[in-house]
Design goal:
heterodimer; A: mainly beta; six-stranded mixed beta sheet; four-stranded antiparallel beta sheet; 12 strands; globular; B: seven-stranded mixed beta sheet; 11 strands
Chain lengths: 114, 113
């Protein structure tokens, strides 16, 4: 079975400083990996996805993530945080066995202070 | 206009009541999903449907039922609500060819007293 572990439940940064949200995955196959963002009182929005092409994936709003097979990691980064980045972020793995479902991590809440 | 809509957005009900949550989509996707979100647990799949005639249980289907009335509509029912079904419920859709890129509705916050 495939799974993801988000290593931090909360991350606090100051506006203008770098963001790092950590995610490790477990998969018996070459995984599809995603980051979704959930702003308060909103649905989830796809930030970026990795599907076995380039290992460095660029997403919306300046976010990017790097797939590292040797470390089984897919960490999300942004060079400079903005107040509007405050949200909950979910690392997700696509389960290609069975009916091809998505498996969600438990989420990381990003807090951005002025 | 939103591509995936959910009604109601908020609902407070009492234990034992029957509740229906509705989801509609204009994306033309075949696949639709119902998830439940609880704090600290991420999203968990309740039911999913690959087309009107294909409905499947997810990992936490007990206490829930669904109906796929049309390609664009997928309803979730709680036959007899209980307090531990208090949660945020999301509907999602995906295209057959891109199953892993799901588009989410805004969510329904359900409180069972």
């Amino acid at each position: 079975a495939q799974s993801v572990t988000q290593l931090d439940s909360h991350v606090s940064v100051s506006e203008g400083t770098p963001v790092l949200l950590r995610c490790n995955y477990s998969s018996s196959y070459s995984p599809s990996l995603f980051w979704y963002v959930q702003h308060p009182n909103k649905g989830l929005q796809l930030l970026l996805k990795y599907t076995s092409a380039a290992t460095l994936v660029k997403g919306i709003n300046g976010f990017e993530a790097e797939f590292k097979k040797s470390e089984t990691s897919f960490h999300l980064t942004k060079p400079s945080a903005h107040m509007s980045d405050a949200a909950e972020y979910f690392c997700v793995v696509g389960d290609i066995t069975g009916f091809q479902k998505l498996v969600f991590g438990t989420g990381t809440r990003l807090l951005v202070s002025p | 206009d939103a591509d995936v809509t959910q009604t109601p957005r908020n609902r407070i009900t009492k234990t034992g009541k029957r509740i229906m949550l509705e989801c509609s989509q204009t994306k033309g996707h075949d696949r639709m999903y119902w998830y439940r979100q609880d704090p600290g647990l991420g999203l968990r799949l309740i039911y999913y449907s690959f087309d009107v005639k294909d409905i499947n249980k997810g990992e936490i289907s007990d206490g829930y039922s669904v109906s796929r009335q049309a390609q664009a509509k997928f309803s979730l029912s709680l036959e007899s609500a209980i307090p531990n079904q208090t949660a945020l419920y999301f509907c999602a859709t995906s295209d057959l060819a891109k199953y892993n890129e799901q588009f989410f509705g805004p969510g329904t916050r359900l409180t069972v007293l």
